Amino acid sequence: MMKYTKAGAVTPHDTTDQTIDTKYGTAIDAIYVGVGGNMYLTLSQDSAPVLFKNAISGTIYPLSAKLILASSGGTATTATDLVKLDTGGKYD
Question: CA-CA distance, 21 to 81, in Å (whole number)?
Fold first, then answer.
């Protein structure tokens, strides 16, 4: 099981980078979903967003994401109480 050393609340936004590790500027390592719904996000090595439907409440998803989009082209993040998690490593 991963040990996370940093956490922060997520406010989905279409252009705000969700980087949590300011030392290395790495993308987040996981997302905790407080209240289930859809997550519309761009993974750290991708240029286009992808929709994860029906993310389950109380689940940690090991996704390296750089953007968690509020809405774009009619698709939206509907999951709430999201928490971004980081292991603190340089090459996560």
Answer: 20
pLDDT tens-digit series, residues 15-31: 888 776 656 566 788 99
Q: Is residue 92 part of a domain?
A: no
Assigned domain for 10 exists: yes
Give Cα separations from 79 to 32, 44, 87 (angstroms): 10, 20, 23
Query: Which domain does 68 fall in, by range?
Result: 6-86
Residue at 91 is within a domain: no
**Domains of the chain: total:** 1
DSSP 87: -
Nearest to 7 by CA among 32, 33, 42: 32
Q: What is the DSSP string of 18-68?
A: ---BTTTTBPPSEEEEEE-EEEEEEETT-SS-EEEEEEPTTEEE---EEEE
